[in-house]
Design a protein that fits this description.
single chain; alpha/beta; TIM Barrel; 8 strands
């Protein structure tokens, strides 16, 4: 029996992210946009207050209006974001999914500071240390996170420019994003890297989106970063990929056309899965997981209602044109990736690249109205791409973001129901989905595995980590030796 591994979840708190800046980046009705600067500052402050009884009348009223507008599920999420200690966030996660028998959790840390109008946060180095000290060590092999990498932070550090929360004459960025990653992997029990290129950069080929990225920095009043070139972004990203290949470190990248993005529609400029092809061609041994499988809605595999996507993308381009005051933005070819859905693009890439994976985090299988669509989609995928996904599909829930959705606690059982419908996956293939495939992706295969059959780098590092910290290796680790 293979261990059950949740490859995609989060343990950040509301104070760990530039919450006000993120809220300001979204698209809203005009009457909300009118009051956005003040309203979102209040919301950010209220969400971060630890307990509902400490929020007071004004906060209580504002948040109730938010829940009425966004849905009551956001009450669950706000309560988790308000938790003060990161260890308590992890405890809530484990208690929520204890019934699922998950033996290894892989939280994906995030670093948004350089991409939104920023508010003072604990430094990313402090956040990594807190996760190491308060989660990794105490849970003794049950939780091993991915460290965040941000090329903008790395470039600011190298250029000795101040971070986003400081004036132009402030102290230079203290932390190298790449060195933080290396230290977390080598010394703190972290087992991979999370990057979030929909924030404003491509995996490679960033010279093509210099204008879009510079607009982000201008709009966020971070003009000192607009001189960073696409070639510089490519350089630091390539250094990350080289490190990951050399030391056998996997990468997970956000890959869905919604979620957190620098501006409405930014995912189409930066996040299309086809943008990863150049990376996988140059670094064929890299283990890469495209998070969410590019699946933004239940009909995500089918190119249905393509006319809606064309209209939506055209609207986004017009909006971008108005904001950029540039005729070029309207007339240049769309970068949305043609008529194929992102799910289909990824399926084609899974056939081509043997070390590419995709996780299923946050898919809408917990809603009865949508589960049949997922069943039909997987039957079509297995027919169109025989054998492509059974060894590459990874289980992940996307807690705590998914707490906005009703019935989220049953995500695992519902996904197994989808894959077993009509005997699409055998019991052994379901076991691979729930954890066996993750052992390959994470580099946790037995030490006697031949190099051509898979990575063992993380197993070696974790073995040394457990010994150095006097941790008894967990059952999932010893059972897979």
């Amino acid at each position: 029996m293979k261990p059950i591994i949740d490859i995609h979840e989060h343990v950040f708190r509301g104070e760990d992210i530039p919450l006000k800046g993120f809220l300001l980046s979204r698209k809203y009705e005009w009457y909300i946009s009118l009051f956005a600067p003040i309203l979102f500052a209040v919301i950010a402050e209220c969400v971060r207050r630890e307990k509902a009884q400490k929020r007071g009348f004004i906060c209580g009223l504002v948040l109730e209006l938010v829940y009425k507008y966004m849905g009551q599920g956001y009450r669950n999420w706000a309560d988790i974001l308000s938790i003060k200690e990161v260890a308590d966030v992890a405890l809530r996660m484990i208690e929520t999914f204890d019934k699922d028998g998950i033996e290894l959790y892989v939280p994906l840390m995030i670093d948004y500071e350089y991409w939104f109008k920023s508010t003072q946060e604990p430094s990313i180095a402090y956040q990594i240390d807190a996760v190491y000290r308060d989660i990794v060590l105490p849970y003794k092999g049950k939780i091993h996170p991915f460290a965040p990498f941000d090329p903008a932070r790395e470039l600011a550090h190298r250029a000795k420019l101040p971070g986003p929360d400081y004036p132009d004459d402030g102290p230079p960025e203290k932390y190298s994003s790449l060195e933080l990653v290396k230290d977390a992997i080598r010394n703190k029990g972290f087992i991979g890297v999370k990057i979030y290129n929909t924030l404003g950069y491509r995996p490679l080929g960033n010279a093509l989106v210099d204008n879009e990225r510079r607009r982000i920095f201008r709009d966020n009043k971070m003009k000192r970063y607009i001189d960073f070139t696409g070639e510089q972004f490519d350089q630091v990203l390539s250094e990350l990929y080289e490190f990951c290949v050399q030391e056998q470190v996997p990468i997970t990248a956000h890959c869905v056309s919604n979620g957190v993005e620098a501006y409405p529609g930014a995912s189409f400029d930066f996040g299309n899965p086809v943008f990863w092809q150049e990376v996988l061609d140059r670094f064929p041994d890299l283990r890469l997981n495209l998070g969410h499988f590019g699946w933004s809605h239940p009909d995500g595999y089918y190119p249905k209602a393509h006319w809606r996507r064309i209209i939506n993308q055209s609207i986004l381009r017009i909006q971008k044109t108005v904001k950029m005051r540039s005729y070029r933005a309207l007339t240049e070819p769309s970068r949305a990736g043609g008529e194929k859905t992102w799910v289909r693009e990824i399926c084609e890439m899974l056939v081509r690249y043997r070390h590419l994976f995709a996780d299923v985090a946050h898919h809408g299988v917990v809603e009865d109205k949508d589960i049949e669509k997922y069943k039909a989609a997987y039957k079509a995928i297995c027919a169109d791409f025989p054998g492509a996904i059974r060894k590459r599909l990874l289980f992940g829930i996307d807690w705590h973001v998914i707490t906005r959705v009703a019935n989220y606690q049953n995500f695992k059982d519902k996904y197994v129901e989808v894959l077993k419908d009509g005997d699409l996956f055998t019991d052994d293939e379901v076991d691979d989905f729930l954890g066996g495939n993750a052992l390959h992706f994470l580099g946790l295969l037995p030490l006697d595995t031949k190099p051509e059959d898979g990575w063992t780098g993380n197993r070696k590092r974790l073995q040394s980590f457990y010994e150095a910290n006097q941790i008894e290796p967990p059952a999932w680790f010893t059972s897979t030796a």
